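Limitations

Structures in this collection are predictions, not experimental determinations, and the ligand pose is part of the prediction. Treat each record accordingly. The example that follows, with TXE as the small molecule, is included so readers can see exactly what is and is not provided: the inputs are given verbatim, and the output is the predicted complex.
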Amino acid sequence: MQKILNYVNGQLMPPNKGMYLENYNPAEGKVYSLLPNSDESDVALAVQAGQTAFVEWSAMPLAKRAAILQKIADLIDRDADKLALAESIDQGKPLKLAKAVDIPRASANMRFYATASMHVSSESHLMEGEAINYTTRTPIGVAGCISPWNLPLYLFTWKIAPALAAGCTVVAKPSELTPMTAFLFSELCIEAGLPAGVLNIVHGLGSKVGQAIVEHPAVAAISFTGGTLTGKTIAATAAPMFKKLSLELGGKNPNIIFADCDFEGVISTSIQSSFSNQGEICLCGSRILVERSLYDRFVATFVSRAKALLVGNPLEEQTQLGALVSEGHLKKVMSYIDLAKQEGGKVECGGVQVKLAGRCADGYFVSPTVITGLDQQCRTNQEEIFGPVVTIMPFDTEEEAIAFANATAYGLSATIWTENLKRAHRVAHQLKSGIIWINCWLLRDLRTPFGGMKQSGVGREGGWEAMKFFTEAKNVCVKI
Ligand code: TXE
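Predicted complex:
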């Protein structure tokens, strides 16, 4: 069986203790490869390699550094089909989606930050007749990047690209549920000539490898995407060590639909924002709020479109929803559907595990699920489910829509549908979310700040925000 290897100090190597974990193909419910069950000794080697490599990498001319990152992007493009297939097998997502979104975005992340690093300029502040201040930004050192399983290579590169472009070296840990594309990525880094120790990838459990990265005194910054509870644990460890922290956590995002919307646009985009990637995207609009005069029509049309979605073998072209990432996650999603029923919800469609024939007979498939009849405060409407499950609730006034939208502990993203320009802006200003889409969803410009309010996280990624995160400002004041 294939063994995934760690990537430490430029070498692909087994974990120190020779222990491995089983890696599942979620569409088949079967183990298909093994990944290192690394521990703090592997992390210690990786951090040491990062510290040594930092001297050369942080001093390398920007253009040279950028050329290596661009080369990695070229190699991702060259191997796009292979990487997309690996992502689909490892994660359960439709191959078509991995080809259209995940892998192109991984190379775009590398290219975006490779070129961004060459456009950085420093600030200066003149004190008339007295002094001049100039501010430099220097890379922070060894950065820890911990990424999740929903968009594996996409989010892995989203973290390491700005870190490397800023001149940091990195110790990264992909999710133990989806390690394959990060492993293939390490082979591409070697081929691209990335100097040894600049990027180190240590595979294994969050509680062992992730925790060891966060605890290591020589790791100066932690960039994490994952669950809110894990984020709390990481913050509790890192904050007393005065590490820089960027936390991208969960969401319970409202999709607010006013009666004056473009109805066809709303339906087709809401199907996407509800069920893309099996609903395993932190930006999915899992709470759909609809103005009462449109409510019945919306529910009828949306439910009929959700029923028509094809859940199937992720490798087949016509499949629209693949498998959930793991058996554990399947159980979590199913338990929330049970909870919704206990809370008085009506399952309008779906709500069941899908049993496929043949190769995928034991896979973790759930039908697109739409639930109505719940109030805003119930647990189903407060907690992140992270699966193909949405609720629909009516509202009567703009004020009520805003109150409902803001009525959770999360504040990641929100979508507003209306043809009334003034209302769109008015509502956007009152929503407590870091990312707002008006009449669209998941339209991403990599220059914009990305992140959430409240329990959706701390800090922002994207554009200069990420470059700033991985660098430290130093002000020099010169008397003239
Ligand atoms: O994520 P974890 P899980 C949400 C979603 C999901 C829930 C739990 O609701 O159902 O979180 O998912 C590493 N120190 N999101 O448990 O554990 C872990 O190995 C350091 C939202 O799978 O947060 C993995 O690499 N690292 C989300 C990464 O953290 C630790 C994406 C994420 O895993 C660690 C995923 C520790 N103590 C889940 N414990 C989003 N915001 O997009 C775990 N890890």
